[in-house]
Structures are given as structure tokens and as C-alpha cells.
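How it folds:
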Amino acid sequence: MPAEQLRSLLPALGNKHYFNYGGQGPLPTPSLEAMVACWGELQRLGPFSRDVWPFVEAETSALRRRLAQLCGVPPHRLSLTENVTSGCVLPLWGLPFEPGDSLLLSDAEHPGVVAACQELARRQGLSISWFSARDCRSDQAVLESLEASLERSTRLVVLSHLLWNSGLAMPIEAVAARLKQHRRQPWLLVDAAQSMGSLELGSVPKAADIYAFTGHKWCCGPEGLGGVALSERVLEQSQPTVIGWRSLRNENSSGSQWHHDGRRFEVATSCIPLGAGLRSSLDLLEQLGNAQQRQALICERSARLWNGLQQIPAVHTVVQEAPPASGLVSFTLDHTPAPEAVSALADQHFQLRSLEDPLCLRACTHAFSSDSEIDQLLAAIAQL
């Protein structure tokens, strides 16, 4: 399917120039229709009847297999979640920390993950330290920064696959290899909010202990559905923290034990039709090419934007050496505060967002972003 044809299936792109895929992707019409059809079948069968459960199980299993395939892990290592936050927090808070253990976070993590780690540390008597990643411009620089910050007490490292504020991809596999050499072999938690659907993942999800992602950003699925790929040792060592009937091997018995696989971190009733919508969105994106080809298209679009920004006086990209190998392009304006610039651009039907750390604007290009709308955005920024 040509990119132009896919754009025609995205109603949200019909009346605006959209550059906020890192916040939420637009939902294709076929995905909405798949959700409505799934809701209709649930009502025809049940919705809480004997005949509905085989349908529910088939839908859930199909989604689990699809997301596990994207992560390159077997289905038993995949937990279905509502979002990245729950994918991080539910297994993280069940790990067997001891007072005095240390959590090591990069300085580029999302505030939601940072807050979860800070509260975990407060409750369990842990310490938190930081290492630089946001300003590192090479894999080696990231690894050296990590090395300088690792301690004997380090029990967990948190590092996003794709930094949400700069668009830089992190060397997750190399970090995981280094942590295996540490005397305590710290767990590795990876926030994959910006990488799922935008990068070719390769073996990165398998290298992490917790690889949490969502379907509503670059995958253009419905909000309220995501997943987390878990390592075998997390499945062995982490216990459920928010508990419901889906966590149990036998939901009808109060004495039932947890599931042995990723289902132990699933809690209770979820919205089944969301899975039909996400699978439909993934099918549509695959018609643009495989993951490597889609990433190449995304980077081609973001390079056009990044190169154009270099030509505008008083505009400075956060990453200055070369275009980031992703669809996230962050930049500052000398004379206009970022929030005001976002509002002024929205008045002209350009949708992007501002960030606070660093204080900047962030524009996101997808595989189906057009050259003409990128050029129009550049012209509008120049006028600011």
C-alpha cells in the first residue's frame, strides 16, 4: 500500500498537519471498524455467557502472539497491559529488592517512570542515582557514562530504547551485556514507548528484563492497550503487585496460584475490542514495508525536517551533529518560548508539542508523513 493511500484511511490527518506521533498516533478507519465489529460479536455471543469465552480467548491469544512476535520473544513472556506505565510498574514493583539496593536511571527518562522508581525507593529503602544519556552522542559515550555510575549496590538500570526528548536510540544490547558482567547482574528496565512501531527492534526486547511498550503511539492503535516483554528471570523472581482474577491459574478458586507466565501481571477485565483495533493497525503499517523499511521511511522524513531546520536562523536542533535515526526531531527557537510556539503553530493547523526538559519543541514524522507538509511546517516555523 502506498503511503498516500494509508493517509487516506486516517481521518485525523484530513484537517491538520500532524507531527505528534510520539504522543499519540491517529487511528485508521479500518481499525475503528474492526473494534466495532468485535464489540458487535461480543454482544451477539454474550457478553458474559458460556459461548463468549472461546471468542475472548481466541482474540486475546491472537493479540499476545502478535505482540510477542514483534518483540521476538515466545508468547509466554508477553504480558498484556494498558500502557507503558503499567508495563513498567507491575513487574518492577514485584522484584525482590533489599534495603540498601540502588536504582540507576538515565537522565532522559519519562517523568512517569521516574516517579514510579522514586516511590518504590521510598517504600523499600532503596537509593537512586543517575547517569547521563541525553547529551551522549555515541553508543560508546553512553556505555562510559553507565560504567562510571555503576555501583556494587546497583540492582536495576532504567534506560529508554529511544529517548523521548532527543530522538536518540540507546545501545540496549550493549548495556545488557555489560550488566551481565556486574557482580549482581542488575535487572534492565527499558521504556519502549517511542521505539515500538518506529524502530526495527531486532533483539533488543530479548536483551531487556522488562521491555514495556504501548500501541497508541507509532503503531497507530487505540489508546488503552500495550504490552511488556519479560525475561525468564523476571518471570521467576517477580511477584504480582496489583492482583486480580486474570493473574490466577484458576480464577474460580481463592486458593489458586499465579500463572507461571506473563499472565501473572495481567489484572482483571480489559477491553477486548482494542486488540482487534491494534492488530488491524499493525496489518496496515506492514503494507508500507517491513520494520526496517518503515524505519528508513521515517528517518528519511525526519532528515528532511532536521536539514530544513538547519537553514532557519534562530532555530537550533537539540541534536546538532546529524539527524537522529528516528522520527523525533526536537529544536528550540531563540525568540519564541516553546509553549507559545506550539500554540501559534496549532492556530495554523500544525500539531506538535513542547517539552520541559530540555525546554524545546518536538516534531515527529511517520512513514506516511508527506514532503509537502514537512515543507509547510518549515515555512511556518521560519515565520515565527
